[in-house]
Amino acid sequence: MEKVRDALAAVAFAETKLKKTNLFETERMFCDVYGLLPGQQQSGHVHAGSDKVYYVLSGSGVFDIAGEQRTVAAGHAVFAPAGDSHAVHNPGPDRLSLLVFMAPKP
Amino acid sequence: MEKVRDALAAVAFAETKLKKTNLFETERMFCDVYGLLPGQQQSGHVHAGSDKVYYVLSGSGVFDIAGEQRTVAAGHAVFAPAGDSHAVHNPGPDRLSLLVFMAPKP
Fold it and tell me: Is A7 buried (19+), middle (13-18) or exposed (0-12) by CB count in 10 A?
């Protein structure tokens, strides 16, 4: 596994849905990048025993964390602790690129 | 705990040594930001059972991961898996700001 990655350069996009690309992974955690074209989303879901952090690399996303909606721009980090429902969508017009950490790996 | 944080705005610096500021924390993981003035460092160390990811928010750092030195600029992520010695220093001239994830919390 390459231990240094250009995060934004690793982000990929797909016309059909949000595209996930793994950067680093162990049995304890993973670190991915997500690419969301305008209109794409990650639907609301809950991890009972894992915490997630999103960091917005570029663009702007609308996050729903435990029912609270926040529009979050590049440079901000969003925390979805275990048990909190979380969702994100890209209202556009720009592409949305996210760095995502989850621990432990569900 | 505030669930949305402006990462770069949260970075603090101290004349004496690297400055750590926590963004998010549970019993499973933490997410910090580190501020390193030119010449400052985090000395080499090992976590036997925890993985760490650094993301360079601004500036440029020299990372040593398991004996391999790499100069890493803003926008790149660096992985220090459990058992790998890791260190970072800021050669300057700019301030170095890092987003740091560790799981599980040691």
Answer: buried
List the single residue in A with minimal CA-CA distance to B84: A3
The alpha carbon of residue B67 is apart from the nearest alpha carbon of chain A, in Å, by: 12
Question: Cβ distance A92 to A43 under 8 Å?
Answer: no
- B103: nearest CB among A68, A80, A104: A104
Nearest C-alpha neighbor of B30 from the set A99, A49, A47, A101: A101
In this prediction the ipTM stands at: 0.96
Contact call for residues A50 and A104 (beta carbons, < 8 A) = yes
Strands, E assignment, B1-106? 4-6, 19-25, 30-36, 41-45, 51-58, 60-65, 68-73, 76-80, 86-89, 96-103
Does residue B91 have a cis bond before it (omega within 30 degrees)? no
pLDDT tens string B50-72 = 999 999 999 999 999 999 999 99
Q: Which residue of B has its CA nearest to A77?
A: B5
Establish, for the pair of chains A and B, how many residue pairs have beta carbons separated by less than 8 Å: 112
B77-87 pLDDT tens trace: 999 999 999 99
> CATH 2.60.120.10: does it fit domain B7-103?
yes
Record: contact B24-A53, CB cut-off 8 A: yes
Residue A9 backbone phi and psi in degrees, to 5: -65, -25
pTM across the whole model: 0.97
